[in-house]
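For practice. Supply one:
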Amino acid sequence: METGEVKFIGKVIEVNGDISVIELTEEVCPGLLRIEEYSHLNILYWFHQRDDDKHRGTLHVIPRRHGETTYRGVFASHSPSRPNPIGLTIVELVSVDGCTLTVKGLDALEGSPVVDIKPHQSI
């Protein structure tokens, strides 16, 4: 199987209820130009607490958080235990201040590395 390289562009520095603060590195900060034109963003982040052989080897889960009691394939779930521990959440952009984004609805933990940010557009 081929591999690639992912460079983290920032991290979640604060989580307070439904509001999260993401701080990007200075290197990628210019990429935020005109981001405020979008009300919602796709945030891709790393499940850093699940990045080990045990969790990367998980292929079947029981999504108990959603009240299920039977197994399903990991690709048919939102489980953080998966071959590549990448999370994706659509968030509401609250504010931008320099290299810092405040967003609503991110389900990442404080300290989670951010992989990428893309504007969300409904079809």
